[in-house]
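We were asked to recover a plausible sequence for a given structure. The inputs and outputs are reproduced exactly as logged, with field labels preserved.

PROBLEM: sequence recovery
POSITIONS: 325
GIVEN STRUCTURE:
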């Protein structure tokens, strides 16, 4: 049963927010007739680019600057899903830095890994397909870390300006989307996305921005030394007193367009410019090695079971008495 129908069957207990999210996930992916090349996704990167530009209306780019090069194709039979271990896991980090600073730079260990819950990594509630443009939304501190990873400045031995990108809904499986570069930098106030203010603020939100804002402003994750994410990110986005979604909405409604600094959403726009074939080969080899090990471990277990002595019809428990069959 599709998610939307399941939510409706649950009756009034299903929240309106959940219904809206499930409805978007149930939308069919666009299909393009007559496409002679089999692809991993039938969605067009141009569609994703247009969607981004409709939501981030101040981005000074056009569709062609967001979409990948015409010659970039991801065939349907390409194996592009990997685990963290196969990616060359550096813990559950957002940035794979290419190895330790005092060691050699390794392309296969250099990547960004994003979950789609707080970013624009897909359309209509679906995970981004390889080659689609991405919008990463966060605090300036985290975006600085991402921009630094894209740049060559932190590792002179890095061969190109750009970075491999993985996206995911969950932590166990990650989809390789290609090699990306920054095409718009919205970290500073003058280039960030202004948030709607005034009495009608709630009706002025572009839908995807509202979803991302809601998820950031509701995130209660914290660390031993830092307050919850919602509190940190709202402060970074120039909110004066709000520390959760309800208070943030109230502050936006009471604010005036002329107030400075403006309340903003900071972000980076990334566009795909190619595929890192060298790193892809390493990740695929890691996956194959893992499969081989699993088969070998299974063979060893089966061989051990076959070589174990057969059990007698009667055997003794710890109490020394024979069991009767």
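RECOVERED SEQUENCE:
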């Amino acid at each position: 049963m599709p998610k939307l129908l399941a939510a409706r069957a649950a009756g009034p207990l299903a929240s309106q927010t959940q219904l809206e999210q499930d409805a978007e996930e149930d939308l069919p992916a666009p299909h393009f007739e007559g496409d002679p090349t089999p692809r991993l996704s039938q969605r067009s990167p141009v569609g994703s680019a247009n969607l981004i530009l409709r939501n981030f209306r101040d981005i000074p780019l056009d569709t062609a600057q967001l979409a990948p090069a015409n010659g970039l194709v991801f065939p349907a039979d390409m194996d592009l899903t990997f685990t963290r271990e196969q990616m060359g896991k550096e813990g559950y980090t957002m940035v794979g830095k290419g190895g330790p600073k005092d060691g050699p730079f390794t392309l296969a260990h250099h990547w960004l890994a994003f979950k789609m819950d707080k970013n624009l990594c897909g359309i209509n509630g679906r995970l981004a397909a390889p080659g689609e443009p991405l919008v990463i939304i966060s605090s300036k501190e985290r975006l600085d870390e991402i921009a630094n990873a894209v740049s060559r400045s932190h590792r002179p031995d890095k061969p190109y300006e750009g970075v491999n990108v993985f996206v995911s809904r969950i932590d166990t499986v990650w989809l390789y989307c290609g090699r990306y570069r920054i095409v718009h930098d919205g970290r500073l106030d003058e280039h960030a996305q202004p948030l709607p203010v005034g009495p009608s603020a709630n009706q002025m939100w572009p839908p995807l921005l509202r979803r991302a804002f809601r998820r950031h402003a509701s995130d209660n994750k914290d660390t031993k030394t830092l307050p919850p994410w919602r509190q940190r990110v709202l402060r970074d986005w120039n909110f004066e007193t709000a520390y959760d979604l309800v208070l943030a909405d109230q502050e936006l409604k009471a604010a005036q367009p002329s107030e400075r600094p403006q309340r903003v959403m900071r972000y980076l726009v990334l566009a795909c410019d190619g595929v890192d074939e060298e790193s892809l080969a390493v990740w695929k080899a890691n996956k194959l090695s893992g499969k081989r090990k699993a088969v070998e471990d299974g063979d060893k277990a089966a061989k051990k079971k076959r070589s174990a002595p057969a059990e007698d019809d009667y055997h003794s428990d710890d109490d020394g008495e024979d069991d009767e069959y």
